[in-house]
Amino acid sequence: MTTELTTDLMTIREMCDAYGVTPRTLRFYEAKELLAPTRQGTRRLFTRRDRARLKLIQRGKRFGFSLEDIRQTLDLYDRDGSDRSQRQRAYDLGVERLSLMQAQRAELDVAIAELTEELAQAEAMGLISRRAA
Questions:
Q1: Is 19 helix (H, G, I), strand (E, B) or coil?
Q2: d(Cα 54, Cα 108) in Å, to the nearest integer?
Q3: Dihedral angle sign, alpha carbons of residues 41, 15, 83, 94
């Protein structure tokens, strides 16, 4: 393997090691048209573009975006060659997702408070003994 190949292209194993994903995950993203590795015989070789897209996919998943939202956002760059519409779409999705996450957190805070109160009442009534967590 030449130095240029090592620098510009990565094998599926190198991608897995570098980004903490499985080969199955990479093939799945390829099938969903999120990644488009080049082929050298039966080998998949991932370009810098694929690596950048994988980072964005991982970030999007961490924020709870659907793969379809991620794909559509990534495809915006491919359509017009700039990142302006892509950035706007990502921003709009981010605002929407943040609002949803804040609402979920508020619901979770209420549920935690209620459960904490229920457990405290059970302990106060002497119905149970507190166990170490």
A1: helix
A2: 31
A3: positive
- Beta strands at 10-11 and 38-40: parallel, antiparallel or unpaired: unpaired
pLDDT digits (tens, 9 = 90+) for 51-66: 999 999 999 999 999 9
The pLDDT tens digits for 3-45 are 344 468 999 999 999 999 999 999 999 999 999 999 999 899 9
C-alpha distance from residue 42 to each of 31, 33, 37, 74 (Å): 16, 18, 11, 26
Structure tokens at 34: 């999120």
Class of domain 1-62: mainly alpha
Rounded Cα gap, residues 17 and 25, in angstroms: 13
Are the beta carbons of 38 and 9 closer than 8 angstroms? yes
78: tokens are 């491919």
Domain ranges (residues) in the chain: 1-62
